[in-house]
Amino acid sequence: MAKLNLLLLAVLVACALGLVTSQHKGRKVFSDLEREHERARELDIEYGRLQLEASTWGLHSRVERIAAGSLGLRAPDPRRVRLIARDTAR
Amino acid sequence: MTSAVGTAAQGLVRLPVWRARFVLAALLVAFAALTLRALYLQALKTDFLQEKGDARYSRLLEVPATRGRILDRNGEALAVSTPVKSIWAIPSDVEFHAAQRRKLLELLGMQGAELDKRLAGPARDFAYLKRQVPPDTAEAIAQLGVRGIYESREYRRYYPAGEVTAHLIGFTGVDDAGQEGIELAHQDSLGGRAGSRRVLKDRLGRVVEDVESIRAAQDGKDLTLSIDSKIQSLAYSALKSAVLQNRAKAGALVALDVRSGEVLALANVPSFNPNNRARLSGAQLRNRVITDLFEPGSTLKPFTIALALESGKVGPQTMIATAPGRMTLANYTIRDVHPAAALTITQVLQKSSNVGAAKLALAMPREAMWDLFHRLGFGAAPELGFPGAAAGRLRPYRSWRPVEQATMAYGHGISLSLIQLARAYTIFATDGELVPLTLVKTGAAATGERLISAQTARAVRAMLETAVQPGGTGPRARVMGWRVAGKTGTAHKQENGGYAADKYLASFVGFAPVSAPRVVIAVMLDEPTAGRHYGGSVAAPVFAQVAQGALRALGVPHDAPLEPLPMPTDTEETREST
Prior knowledge:
heterodimer; A: rod-shaped; B: Beta-lactamase; five-stranded mixed sheet; 21 helices
């Protein structure tokens, strides 16, 4: 009887320690998850900022100004442009 | 006592029994006290203690939500929210030395007096120094380490296309809520909802456990518009230069995709920069395409003619006597700029004859005319989901007098918005179907409501093509490589209940390519004052420019030979009086 009790006590202590470790691990993993969430959010904001920047640099009026101004480009004579029909209609 | 003495005699002290009992009782009492205390704490005061415990490591976190982006049909950003910092202070805590103060003023872009005023404001514990500061400036301010100055995160909306899309997109206020245009119309789906949750934090401030989510944060949804920013940008710059060149007060333009009913471009001049809205005037804010009304003038004639053709009594070649180029009805004289003895119906449209259109209208029951106008959507706000869309004015036919019916045939005495007019032209661009419009990308063909027969629609389309040929009023609307069709309008502006003699609204509405129409474009210029004021000389070139760019951008195959078009110098034909 005393042996069984001792055994049960040992099991109980092991379980208690296991609970503590798993809780600790859980919290650690959760804090990692939190950090990744935060990073995802930062990246999304960064994406928005880059999108904004892309739109600003790619403004049609700006592209046109640079093309016509510093690069000396101009639209080709329409007679020299051939339109090719696409299979997939947009 | 003898026994005690006896044991003492044996060398042992026999303690009295009561002492042991006493110790036992004391221990029992102590245990009982502990048990009671434990019971009291566990059962009765547990809520209070739990709360105290939570207060030590549980935190309520705000979960911010971002506002949805607005994109054009190809995914280019038109409006994006990005975090900025707001700098605020607790005035009574602020302490800085001269160097810090100088640096702070420099970073804030502020005068010393202004800063002092803000710090001396009525609130002792809170004052904004500057809102919506770029992140790097905020960083530099934080580096200064001034006591009593803090920053908090806010969102600011940026519009990369600026003035080009200003009227359509609208803008948001400082609290990131829509105030105008699409931003206001789609506030519910664009605007995110900040949430909050309760978490456990450890000693280092890391979140280690989610306790409960009090309110889930919801980010705003992105919105993809039907606008094509390439066409939009082209439309805006063409319109802007036309307004400058003709010294007009304002201009408006709208381009529609005939197949899907999507609005491809919507431009207004004068415009404003939505990123910097200091000093805005009412004129800049007006959206002349959707919320402003005007009398369309001759651009309404095709509908009168379509109705006449629908009745089956006349055909495109039926002659109408228009001599002597004027007609008097109840003290009001309708005049033609190009008086002719007789014109075919095609020529009535081509030469923009008011007398011809008036005669056609008077031959029809006013009810039929009202019915067509009503079904075209005049007098009812278009279902665009845009705030402040104007309905226009179409009076009930019972109150029409003959002179009013006659003038309405060429677009006087009726008012509508430019987008209503452009939409009405879809019945000629399709085979008689009025296409429903949308500002949001659908990518699908729209099914319209049939208003006139395909035969009539084709006949009017052919007539509209003659109107842009040499001999018509709008040859400058032609585009190399594509057949176009359209109608000019030169309406006198209404002023103080009458028509101003020297103030005009020049307009052009047309579509291209004629063989399989793809885009409808409507252009309107308000009070051109640089000499020319006819729709054919002022608005038609804008149409041509935008049509060419749009057809190229959409990859529409050519349906006309690629030969340079001889552009007439302002011919006699361009002239018209409505």
